[in-house]
Amino acid sequence: MQSNAPVLVVDRLTIKRGNITAVQDVSFSLAAGADMAIVGPNGAGKSTLVKAILGLLPYHQGEIQLFGQQLHVPRRGGRQRTTSLAGQGIAYLPQNFLVDARVPMTVTELVGLGWDGASLQLPWKGWRDRRRAVHQALVQVEANHLQHQSLSSLSGGELKRVLLAYCLVRPRRLLVLDEAPAGLDFAAEAEFYQLLRKLKREQGWAILQISHDLDMVRETCDCVLCINRRLLKQGVPAEVLHPELLYETYGPH
Q1: Residue-by-residue DSSP string for the chain
Q2: Spatial CB neighbours of 219, under 8 Å, sequence gap ≥ 6
Q3: Predicted confidence (pLDDT) per residue in 202-238, tens digit
Q4: Under a CB-based contact definition with an 8 Å cutoff, are residues 52 and 43 in contact?
Q5: Distance in angstroms (rounded) separating the CA atoms of residues 111 and 149
Q6: Environment class of residue 114 by beta-carbon count within 10 Å: exposed (0-12), middle (13-18) or buried (19+)?
Q7: Distance of alpha carbon 196 from its chain centroid, rounded?
Q8: What's the pLDDT band for 69 if we cut at 50, 70, 90?
Q9: Half-sphere exposure of residue 227: CA atoms within 13 angstroms, side-chain side
Q10: Cβ atoms 176, 91 nearer than 8 A
């Protein structure tokens, strides 16, 4: 059974990039098993917000709680920085995953890296458990036939499936996507979201995703966070993706 406690709580978060306030006083919570989209124009602070949640950027004010634990440590001068999320049950799919053809890494080797972090905390898990977990993850995303292929030989859609397998190789509770389907054609993007919805149901993931695809957000997401440096609106898609608010957010285009 899923806990009623939020997976993620962001409280009055302010993030500065140099002298610029990139995100100002943003608060929201993400329930277990929910799919939340972050929408807004380019430069609105969406990726900055996500990077702060992941611990990749320091934040100036506010608090972040993941699974009920506060994710910052004190810093001199009153500032704060987030702690590492390693082992926290969270996975991240970036907008772009660059593959260097000079590095001969196979699909199995990449997915196995997702297991290796867990093995440091669970030292009794051996190589048979690792191999079984990698195999099962690739089967779940229908990519087991790719196991021996090099990453550089994969299509965009195949690579996204492999990255989802990386997220599956050990238990996760929160999946963070930064425009993860970027670069896919229409058919491949539709397949990606179909697979993502299937895995969400099976795994019970909470999902936090940045998206510019408002039609997809309307169809698949439970809640929407609309920001343009500050929080403009949050709620169900029918309330947030309203023409008047979209005009205010994106302008007359």
Answers
A1: ---SS-SEEEEEEEEEETTEEEEEEEEEEE-TT-EEEEE--TTSSHHHHHHHHTTSS-BSEEEEEETTEE-EEE-GGG-EEEPP-TTSSEEEE-S-----TTS--BHHHHHHHHHHHHHHH-TT--HHHHHHHHHHHHHHTT-GGGTTSBGGG--HHHHHHHHHHHHHSS--SEEEEESTTTT--HHHHHHHHHHHHHHHHHHT-EEEEE-S-HHHHHHH-SEEEEEESEEEEEE-HHHHS-HHHHHHHH---
A2: none
A3: 999 999 999 999 999 999 999 999 999 999 999 999 9
A4: no
A5: 12
A6: buried
A7: 12
A8: confident
A9: 26
A10: yes
Tokens of 253: 């285009």
Spatial contact of 90 and 172, defined as CB atoms under 8 Å apart: yes
CA–CA separation, 148 and 155 (whole Å): 15
What is the rounded CA–CA span in Å between residue 134 and residue 128?
10
Q: What tens digit of pLDDT does each residue of 75-123 get?
A: 544 445 445 454 468 899 888 888 877 878 999 999 998 887 554 455 5
Alpha-carbon dihedral sign for residues 144, 145, 148, 152 = negative
Tokens of 195: 């697979």
